[in-house]
User: What shape does this take?
Amino acid sequence: MAGIAVAALTVSGAMASAETIRWARVADALTLDPHSQNEGPTHTLNHHIYETLVGRAIDGSLTASLATDWGISEDDENVWVFTIREGVTFHDGSPMTAEDVVFSLDRARTPPSGMAALHAAVEEVTAVDDTTVHVRMSGPAPLYVQNLTNTFIMSKAWAEANGVETAPNFAAGEEAYSVRNANGTGPYVLVERDPEVRTVLQAFDGHWGDAPAVTEIIYTPIAEAATRVAALLSGEVDIVQDVPVQDIARLEQTDGVRVVRGPENRNIFFSYDMSSDSLASSDAEDNPFAKPEVREAMALAIDRNAIRQVVMRGESQPSAAPLPPFVNGWTEEMDAFGDPDLERAAELMAEAGYPNGFSVQLDCPNDRYLNDESICQALVGMLARIDIRVDLNAQTRSLHFPLIENWETDFYLLGWGVPTFDSQYVFDFLVHTREGSYGSFNGSRYSNPDLDAKIQLLSTMTDLEERDALIAEIWDEVMEERIFLNVHNQVLAYAMRDNINLDVHPENQPKMTTVTFD
Assistant: This one.
């Protein structure tokens, strides 16, 4: 594809049949294991192969999937009851039962599963019969079902036969049969897998749902933005999920191309090691990020509007709060930010003991978020104005994420979606002390036992007004501590042939089962 002419102005070349979709995006799924990694592109591909108990519609509402009904038990407020869909089969032809659901939920909630924090309040999962599952919580948990939209159900027998009873540790580079092979109940069967090159899926004839219009998916990661767009213009691919912001306007004016836009339920931010005595990548003898004056100075140095205008070409929503407006707990007050104040930032640096600044390495992905490396480059220049000398280390996300999970980075960029549409998801993964199921992406090493206790209370609070008040209290402390240096909320654009209909999904998880053709 490197030889495709970028200057093409109209869609040309071979056209795919109405049954085949050739789908390209910036990066591949990190793994096919359904519980190993809690990461957007990984979930997006796996949603075509595996299924969850409940789904998430375009409007954010929950939909029935492998569970046809769910609710809190009338006899015990600590128990969730799920009615499991009958007549569902795995791709190997074996029937799905409640035992598979029990196995999958237990697997997902057991570290090193990347999904464990979502199920931290679960005490026990039991199969009452072939179609009924009870999930006992540590207390009343009225919002637990919201945590299940990315927890996939897999075959217990298949997992046992292939030695993958527990999820492989992605951060440690652990290999397992489930990393490259799959056996789900989803609408598509895996027929070919060449990681980072090509994945082919075909419609599953035995699926319980309506047959999709798309009967074959050819999924191709294309890291280079210009090559990705050129592939669409030449007719080599049909849908581009990650449209570069600099190409949106041109594509909107191109014959034969349709561009669909919408806000994403995802926030982009920087964070830093706040707890270590010193930083491995810095010339400072101590840890500058441990000092609140330095964190405030950095907040005063960042120019979010400039990033929006220059880096994102207007395609972002600048914000100070590390959660999108979709999410329960978001307020306009916490989202507000002022203009940069370099004079005050310099004063704060001197007060903290760094009148001549310090050096540090910034770790950044270059193939995960819209213009991620360019955002990092912009921050490097902005921090230089207050004498923070940043060495940028940009690399593929498969190398970047383990740095955060293994506490091997001093300073990093991360994007975070909130599939539960609730602030607790942010707190559980990013704020809570890293222990047990909690804090798997808390790369800041922030630890506050009092705040941890408040976060854990959220899972089992039944008075939602009281719960929202506690969420606000937690956010007040998080924002005051400046655990995150927030940049913006992402805005998405999908580009496709103009006879294809596909809406932007707020989770950036388009499903090819929803595609229709004109």
Residues 34-177 form a domain with the Dipeptide-binding Protein; domain 1 fold (CATH 3.90.76.10).
